Amino acid sequence: MSTTTSFPSGLGFVKNYIHDILGQHGFNQLPSADREKLMDEFTDQAIIRLTAGLSSELSKDGKKRFETMAASGNAADQEWLDFWQQEVPNVQTVSKEILTAFALELKQTLNS
């Protein structure tokens, strides 16, 4: 994936979530190359939104830790997952809200 955000790119659940939404709108009928391109683009957008939304929940110390990890550029996926779970107590709820809002926007875009 091409994203350079501070959320692990290996988050399969995000890609699966996006795939399900796209599948409801004829996504599986597209040629393979088009499907892959759309998946990458929409997944990148979802991860960017997750990062932005979760970042707003960070404490002052959490923001410093976030900046350090992002600046290093070499934090592993598991390190990021651990970070978000430690720093955002309601990470699952916030993530679900962010992805739900993104899904609504995506559905509106696909329906227009």
Specify Rg, calculated over alpha carbons. Answer: 15 Å
Ends distance: 27 Å
Q: Name the structural class.
A: mainly alpha
Overall number of structural domains: 1
What does the largest sheet look like? Answer: none
Number of helices: 5
**How much of the residues is beta strand, in percent?**
under 5%
Taking all residues together, what is the mean pLDDT?
81
Shape: elongated
Q: What fraction, in percent, of the residue positions are helical?
A: over 70%
Provide the low-confidence segments as ranges.
Answer: 1-6
List keywords for this structure.
112 residues, mainly alpha, 0% strand, disordered N terminus
Model description:
This protein has 112 residues and is mostly helical. The chain has one domain. Helices cover 72% and strands 0% of the residues. The relative contact order is 0.17. The N terminus is likely disordered.
